[in-house]
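User: I've been going back and forth on whether these two constructs are worth ordering. Before I decide, could you fold them both?

Assistant: Sure. I'll take them in the order you sent them. The first construct and its structure tokens:
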Amino acid sequence: MLILISVLAAIIPMTVYLILIWKFDKYEREPFGLVFKSYLWGAIGAIFFAIFLSLLLSSSISLFILNKNLMDKVDTIYIAPLVEESTKGIFLLILVTSKKFDNVTDGLVYGGAIGLGFGMTENLLYFLSYGKTLPELLSLVVIRSLFSAVMHCVSTGTFGAFLGYAKFNRTIHKVILPFVGLIAAMVIHFTWNFSVSYRSTAGLGFLFMFLTILIFIGVYTISILKEKKIIYNELLPETEAGLIPSAHLKILSSPQRNKPGWVDESIRKSYIKAASTLAFRKMEQKNSRGYRKTSYEKDVDYYRNYIKDLLNQTFLNR
């Protein structure tokens, strides 16, 4: 019975969090398949490499630290943040090269998904190892589901946000920001692990994590609003050029676009997706160079023609 509860308690909360951070991205939602792959990387790939590298690093350091209690602290406070944030971040470094990953919001979503997957597997291992009685298990479920696992979401999401911001930055920050993001992720992880490793600082740890979660939500909200602004600003010239009807401009950059009635229902979802993608490809085109710029220019032409065909088709069918 405890095993079943452990499995469900590990999977359900993290899956709910995953769906929430995905759906909250209202204006340029990422493909769920790619978000789920990120989740699986955290749950399987990152965990596997983290365990392997942690054991390797720990066994090497233990040659110099003979005190078991001290070595346990080193494993938890220092080795875990260093190794786990690195292994979780590997998939983000691959994803950031994709056209699907183009801003801070995307980094928060993909990084958050990886962290939640990692937290899910880590929770399961903790529940099975230390939840020997129902009260012990329930206590673990509450603490780890609300804080420890969410810490993985926030820390890796932070790294993802820095990658998203750096991707189209033309200055030296393009190189520096990813390193800053990884260090920030490790610091969040380190601070949580350090604080809850001692009774005297555990309260400060929970307070720190609570504030960090609020900051994560705040940055996510601001990033969503910025996406709305990008869509409006980049589609404004398309309205002036006659591609997109002026009545559609504000709707396409607001939650109202998800309501029926403002455009033919048969094309509404395709139109929204194409218009949003066009806006972001234009932004990316402006901030790219070389072959990437050429690739984005082709995408811009493609989506302009696609939108034109969609609207003409609707007009002819009337």
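The second construct, handled the same way:
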Amino acid sequence: MKLRVLDDHDTVLATSDLDALGQDDLVPALSDFLADAPRPDAAGHRVVHGGSAFTRPVVLDESIDVALQALVDLAPLHNPPCLAAVRALQQLRPSLVQVACFDTSFHLTMPAKASTYALPRLWREQWGLRRYGFHGLSHEWASHRAASLLGQPRGQLRIVTAHLGAGASLAAVGYGRSVDTTMGFTPMDGLVMATRPGSLDPGLVLWVQRQKGLSAGEVESMLETGAGLLGLSGISGDLRRVIGAADAGDDAALLAYDVYVYRIQCYVASMVAAMEGIDALVFTGGAGERSSRLRSDTCARLAYLGVHLDDVQNTTSSGDRRITHTGVLPAVLVVEAREDIEIAHHVRTLLGGGLTV
């Protein structure tokens, strides 16, 4: 759980990163943080899945809480802890305005051809089955920051943003709007992740249920927490440990890393196709920001798109930066994930400026 207090200039006034907490630990942890932090005017929460009901940030109240509870099954790893934090903060600061900011909102600009599954009309129209996309707050910030680093308006650029962390996704941000992304109806789709498999043949899921007797709950648990890098390597979902084991000669770890990188490379190409070109590729998220090895290996097979790294900038520099030579397009950049700034912007837009969030 990441806690930040920002003033109206986006200066961080207080910060804390905590391990995942149970319900009983949330209230004391938040209480300790708030005791030492400047008093906020409002609180913004990252909510992973807004479904079709929530298209923009909303002020949280009892009716919104009920509606969000109905979406828990769409993001069972993410939405429940968020809602628990909302209630804990409500208990501590009952008069504090709380705002839900949705990771799905940024991708609502995707055209129908990108967001629509080839499913029966009943499933699509009455059950709301479509591609939503996630990590929207991160992709939105990364594309804004990339445009700033390049000194060009975001509305004139075609940017592929790569959020690579425990969860991972790409987005095609074409001329300021999300036009495609790798995640779909849930955050399980697309790239290989720490413990999630990414894209799968749905027939595979049906097969393990029918032929091996696994229940829906058992399949869900394995695909959420036992697949991805962890499932492939048998060692860890932490990319650093997987790379270390691969370099030490572990064949399973090497395969895990190769599959992970290969999936990123293939999906970068699909994002470029969605925009009919690329001006910038942006790496963000924990692995995207910190692993020069991952960036180098990913870009090694993207030369046909004109991607060529400056090895010195990639391996020796730090902070938000360009890691291709000046003037070379597409540019490759590294941007720190700052969902906190994006959330604060959304909260101020909804409630008015000059707020400590």
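Notes on the second construct follow. The radius of gyration is 20 Å. The mean pLDDT is 93.
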